[in-house]
């Protein structure tokens, strides 16, 4: 149990860090979605964490997350004019900005329990936690420490190994056409990163 708690804390801390850096959110913990198909109230212990059937080796990107998007991808995703690598709790993160300072951020969390950590914290009382469609065949959840999805912010966590995930975080200004739909950009960013990792393995 202590080990599970440590993994959950590490994963949550990583999500907090990425949210703060890429999305200017406030620290907290994710909350669960409440699927209508569930016959009883879900708990963190009853949730089934999806397995990663085709693990990806992202070791070469863990200390160089700015390589997760090529210049062409960064231009397509957010019309990037600059990027910046920052320090993370587990591994560095990279944030790309457009000319209006809208941003997307990517960071890997190796060896921290993968999506299991996010699922363990799914029933907290702040933030958000919702199942997301698979990203290029890899399981994902929308999860953040503060629910700012109606204010231009969104974060998606994608499992690439059973013990590793990466997050794609979005922060948009009110002038962005995607301000009311930031999660679509988070998914697009995550899909581009999966494409890069696949090509690099």
SSE order and pairing:
Layout: H1 2-23, H2 59-62, H3 71-78, E1 82-86, E2 93-97, E3 103-110, H4 115-120, E4 128-135, E5 138-144, E6 153-161, E7 164-171, H5 182-200
Antiparallel strand pairs: 1-2, 2-3, 3-7, 4-5, 5-6, 6-7
In words, what does this structure look like?
With 201 residues, the protein is of the alpha+beta class. It has one domain. The protein has 5 helices and 7 strands. A 7-stranded antiparallel β-sheet has the order 1-2-3-7-6-5-4. Helix 3 packs antiparallel against helix 5. The chain is globular and about 40 Å long. The N terminus is likely disordered.
Q: Pick out the low-confidence regions.
A: 1-14, 16-45
Q: Please indicate the count of domains.
A: 1
Shape: globular
N- to C-terminal distance? 34 Å
Instruction: Bin the strand percentage.
Output: 15-25%
Cα Rg: 15 Å
The major β-sheet equals:
7 strands, antiparallel
Helix coverage percent: 25-40%
Alpha-beta content class:
alpha+beta
Give the ordered list of helices and strands.
HHHEEEHEEEEH
Strand sequence of the main sheet, in spatial order?
Answer: 1-2-3-7-6-5-4
Record field, number of beta strands? 7
Mean pLDDT: 81
List the total number of helices: 5
Q: How would you describe this structure in keywords?
A:
single chain; 201 residues; alpha+beta; seven-stranded antiparallel beta sheet; 5 helices; 7 strands; globular
């Amino acid at each position: 149990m202590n080990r599970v708690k440590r993994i959950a804390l590490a994963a949550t801390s990583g999500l907090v860090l990425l949210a703060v850096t890429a999305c200017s959110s406030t620290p907290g913990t994710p909350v669960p979605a409440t699927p209508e198909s569930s016959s009883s109230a879900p708990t963190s212990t009853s949730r089934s964490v999806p397995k990663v059937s085709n693990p990806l080796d992202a070791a070469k990107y863990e200390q160089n997350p700015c390589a997760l998007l090529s210049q062409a991808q960064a231009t397509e995703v957010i019309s990037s004019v600059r990027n910046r690598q920052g320090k993370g709790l587990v591994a560095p993160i990279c944030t790309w900005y457009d000319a209006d300072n809208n941003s997307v951020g990517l960071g890997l969390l190796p060896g921290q329990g993968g999506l299991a950590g996010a699922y363990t914290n799914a029933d907290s009382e702040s933030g958000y936690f919702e199942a997301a469609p698979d990203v290029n065949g890899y399981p994902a959840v929308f999860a953040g420490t503060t629910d700012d999805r109606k204010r231009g912010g969104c974060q998606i966590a994608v499992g690439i190994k059973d013990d590793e995930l990466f997050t794609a975080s979005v922060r948009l200004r009110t002038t962005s056409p995607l301000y009311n739909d930031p999660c679509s950009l988070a998914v697009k960013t995550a899909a581009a990163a999966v494409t890069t990792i696949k090509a690099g393995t």
